[in-house]
Amino acid sequence: MSQVGLHHYLVVSALLFSIGLLGVIIRRNVLVIYLSLELMLNAANLALVAFSRFNNNLNGQLIVFFIITVAASEVAVGLALIVALYRKRQTTHVEDLATMRN
């Protein structure tokens, strides 16, 4: 059996980031785009934790702790904006929200 190394974590992180980027580019639903952005953020967090672990340094893990703290408040504000847009426009499709009049 082989040991799981840094390369494996970085490949998983790159795959997660790619899936998130593909979701942002292809999807047209605001909520799915928002979830894809969160997936990209978590992929970056995974890379930071992996580098931190394999360098025996806690700095990367501390940065991830602060990123997760900021992301929690971002989720609250972002979801509130999405709910407000849905109540105003009755849709979550990006094309329908392109004009911000009325």
Secondary structure elements and pairings:
Elements: H1 6-26, H2 30-54, H3 59-89
Helix pairs in contact: 1-2, 2-3
Feature tags:
single chain, 102 residues, mainly alpha, Helix Hairpins, 3 helices
What is the overall pLDDT average? Answer: 90
How do the SSEs run, as a string of H and E?
HHH
Question: Biggest sheet: strands, sense, closure?
Answer: none
The percentage helix is over 70%
Strand content: under 5%
Might you state the CATH topology name? Helix Hairpins
Number of strands: 0
The span between the termini is 62 Å
* CATH architecture name: Orthogonal Bundle
What's the level 1 CATH class? Mainly Alpha
SS field, number of helical segments: 3
Q: What is the C-alpha radius of gyration, as a whole number of Å?
A: 17 Å
Low-confidence stretches: none
By oligomeric state, this entry counts as: single chain
| Count of the domains | 1
The outline comes out as: elongated
Which structural category do the helix and sheet elements fall into?
mainly alpha
Written description of the protein model:
With 102 residues, the protein is mainly α. It has a single domain (6-97), classed as Helix Hairpins. The chain has 3 helices and no strands.
Short description:
With 102 residues, this protein is mainly α. It has three helices and no strands.
